[in-house]
Amino acid sequence: MAERTVAEEYLAGYAQILLDACSTGRRLTRAELDVRRAEGERAAEANLGLRVLVRAHLSEARRVQEALTTPRVAGLLAVVEQAVDAFAEGFERAPQLAVRQEEAARREFIDDLLGGGSDLGRLAERAERFGLRLSRAHAVAVAIGPEPYGDGYPVARGIESAVHARFGNRHTLLATKDGRLICVAPGDQPDVLAFFAKQAYAATDGGRVAVGRTHPGPGGVVHSYEEALNALDLADRMGLEGPVLHAADLLVYPVLARDRQAMADLVETTLGPLRGARGGAQPLIDTLSAYFDSGCVAVEAARRLSLSVRALTYRLERIRSLTQTDPGDPRHRYTLQTAVIGARLLGWPDASS
């Protein structure tokens, strides 16, 4: 009896449509089926059990059967089947709609959080729903791989499961944006970002991860996110090695690139004469990069370039002759190395006009 009392709210009009349909021998109309689906959705949202509700439908059908004359009873079962099927369809659809709505709300929040254009106070309120406390300081890690990734992809799901299994919630957020994998974590929990980086590197088959610095407040998340993106961009332009990049280790590059015109002048003045070399400037720029990256050790630089030491020495002499600066001379080395970094930042000589 208690079950029927609970279910009665969702049986409104049900007996009448059974009587109307059986009286004429017709099937239920589209409008009547839509009503039953809507009632099924409402019942699911109220967390009622489907078995209880189906039983209530069948009990009500028996009462309708008692009120029908014998000729009209024949079509009752078919009409009940239609009604119960529509109700169950609505009941099953409700959780799916709720999941899609939750996913849409989460995606909108992530876009607003990382886009930086939303009201920060309102953003902080919404963040609580997704486990973030934006009043704290946060850091962001961004991972890329050989292909773009989206929410629900096996790679994204696997990394999220691994992080949550290891650390629980810990007020972290894992998501995807523009084909990249994202992890937002409190700034005082670098172990979470380190574990995310390890998992992302393995799951993306040798992808690359960049970690932004820790910044406070709602705006700190987008600041850290942009630092991570810039670190990935720098890694491509500068040919930086290593699977994990930390924005804090790359601060010198934005400083050097801040005055673009001054950097362009330095590059052109210092390295411009290398255009006159056979094969152009690029092989000699690569030689200087390897030489400086190896600590000015000729043997190591030659190994990196797959050259003999003699061939490397010849190239260094050619650079000295063309530029009137000696890579081995400490007085010239800083200018040359800064110019080489600037050339890689600016894409010189390919990007020069």
From TrEMBL:
Gene3D superfamilies: PucR C-terminal helix-turn-helix domain. Pfam families: GGDEF_2, HTH_30. InterPro entries: CdaR-like_regulators, CdaR_GGDEF, PucR_C-HTH_dom, PucR_C-HTH_sf. Residues 284-340 form the PucR C-terminal helix-turn-helix domain. Residues 117-234 form the CdaR GGDEF-like domain. It comes from the Bacteria. Belongs to the CdaR family. This is Regulator. It comes from Streptomyces amritsarensis.
